[in-house]
Amino acid sequence: MHKNLLTFIWGATMLLTHSWSQAASDLPPTAKVDMGPVEEVCSDFISPEWRKAQVIDGVEIQASRLCNPDNPSDIAAFVKGTNGISMKTLMETQLAADAITMSDDIDGDGDPDKIIIRLEIAELNGHSPDMKDPTTTFDIAPGIQPTFWVFAPKTRDMSTLSIYEPIANPLLRVPSPVIRVEQDDVIWLIVENTHYLPHSLHLHGIDHPFMDHAGVGNDGVAQSSNMDIMPGESKTYVIKPRQPGTMYYHCHVQPHTHIPMGLQGIFIVEENRPNNWPQTLNVGAGQVRHPSVAVLEKYAREYDLHYQSADKELHELVARSANDPRLIAKHMNMEYDSTDATDDYFMLNGRSFPYTLRESLIEMQKDEKVKLRILNGHTEAMAVHIHGHKPTITHYDGVDNGPGSYIQRDVHGMVPAQRIDLELNGTDDGLNSFGQGIWMFHDHVEKAFTTNGIGEGGDISLVVYKDFLDEKGIPKSHGMSLAPYFTKGLWKGKYPIWQDYDAWHSLGLPDLKADYQPSKVAVQTVQAQWTPATPQAEQESSAFGKLVFGLILGLLSYVLIINRKMIYDRVRKLINK
């Protein structure tokens, strides 16, 4: 009974509510936020010839449909060595003459077996006492320039494109280069410390002796092997790896900061084959334009995918806190607490979306297979997810699982420093592939979709089938415009990404500075009717009084009806008395 009574009272109250309580106020108009300058998705700066398949100094170089393909002359130098190419080709690179030297076909199978690789250490987006802005700049996304330290091939020219442009030359970039060697080759890795802090090189997962032939430590760990490489000094690491696989290398000095700062890279030992000339360096990772003989036995193409993240406090505050290396060391080693760190930037091959579209697309064709080598260079676990496909994992940390243990699924979890090899299959059977198209791939830990907390950004990239790429390597997208992503305003949090989705700009920002008058017009328009000329206040008072009287009378009637039996019995008892 109580429930019915409450329902009646609520319904009567709603019916008796004054009509002006349904009035609506106009909202402020939508502000039109200017998008600002929009970068070209792909400029004409790169020669279209770089994208074509070609042969340079006897080196076969695969086509690369990317917007920013690698310099083919660099590829020739990485395959033949800087001592094995023509002077003309060398001059088309910025490599030093001794950056990579190859010699001694020890096993007589037609390829060199002694490889000497010289690496320097460079700073990107760092400070100089001579200028206010960062020098040797490297943008991971429009206007985003964290400071990095990287291993880089030894170069002969300036660190920048020119004396007028602070942009880093293409050999100095994030991530540190992928290093490729052949199984059983003798490798000398010479690290020239051109930086202002101590560093080392640890060969993570790569077969190497603890001590070299000179009795000097070879593991890159100061506490147990050899002293750190001080600024201006160099150290040679000598190895002869016996097992093939996808490995890892990184600095082992204060690794909780030096590895996130960028001193890390993929190291690959290729299976031994006759006349096998691996591409010794893959700068910036991405497509390998000269795959090894063993890879081409199974796959059409090969891609290196290096995932990284960066804490804004470390990369923009601590690393830029001074021009005195003593103070930087103090701030980094004595004050910065990595246990409180949170990553703000998430990158694939050194870039965040949308720049990943220029360099880190995976091109596919129907029914072909592609090899992916993936490194988790993050500080936390990640989950690789490729839309439209279920790739097969063949190797963990460089070790072949064996066909009976291959795992096929669409999300592959990886802990920090772990590597996996994936087989991406273009067979349209609903399992390997869902068909041709433009398919996203990314780390499915959701914050990795963002750049400084703004989405969609981070390490997003695409698997694109051949017919969905234009002549510049730009995906022929079928969704929203990519223009906002190529502006600095979006990544500064100044542009509402949904602003222009419809003609009314219904999801833009309200213009709180606009001069407007709120309306008090009822939502439902009522046709005007003739009434006697009675003052408005008197009409409202009279109507309200009648409605209240009606409500009280209705409630009284309801109570009398519900309790009629009890009232009847009491009245009868009074009469009988």
From TrEMBL:
InterPro entries attached to this UniProt entry: Cu-oxidase-like_N, Cu-oxidase_C, Cu-oxidase_fam, Cupredoxin
Gene Ontology MF terms in the entry: copper ion binding; oxidoreductase activity
Alphabetized UniProt keyword annotations: Copper, Membrane, Metal-binding, Oxidoreductase, Signal, Transmembrane, Transmembrane helix
Record organism: Candidatus Methylobacter titanis
Signal peptide positions on this chain: 1-23
Stated name of the protein: Multicopper oxidase domain-containing protein
Top-level taxon in the UniProt lineage: Bacteria
Alphabetized SUPFAM superfamilies for the sequence: Cupredoxins
Transmembrane segments: 543-563
Pfam families membership: Cu-oxidase_2, Cu-oxidase_3
Positions of the Plastocyanin-like domain: 174-272, 339-448
